[in-house]
Amino acid sequence: MHPPLTPHRHPMCLEIIEEFQKCHTDHPIGKFFGDCTQLKVKLDRCFRQEKAVKRKVNFEQSKKLQQRLKAIRKDETAET
User: Residue 8: helix, strand or coil by DSSP?
Assistant: First the structure.
């Protein structure tokens, strides 16, 4: 299973998504017998790469937020 193939949610994988959807349209029966399997594998790899990038960005943002909160707490304890 793959997540919903909406282009706005997966901009990095847009080309592969379009190819995969075209394959499913061109091979309505063959898709059940592996005609689109190679594209599916490429799509899964792309989703993994996209997720890794998002995870890294989120981690960096959380580190910045933690540092900011730590500084605020330090200032608050220094004032009291």
Answer: coil
Q: Is the pTM of this model over 0.85?
A: no
Which tokens hold the place of 7? 């282009």
Q: Distance between CA atoms of 7 and 14, rounded to whole angstroms?
A: 6
Q: H-helix or E-strand containing 37?
A: helix 37-79
Is 50 buried (19+), middle (13-18) or exposed (0-12) by CB count in 10 A?
A: middle
Neighbours of 42 (CB within 10 A): 15
Residue 13 DSSP code: G
Tokens at residue 65, please? 């937020």
Q: Phi/psi at 10 (nearest 5 deg)?
A: -135, 65
The model's pLDDT over 16-70, given as tens digits with 9 standing for 90+, comes to: 999 999 999 999 998 889 999 999 999 999 999 999 999 999 999 999 999 999 9
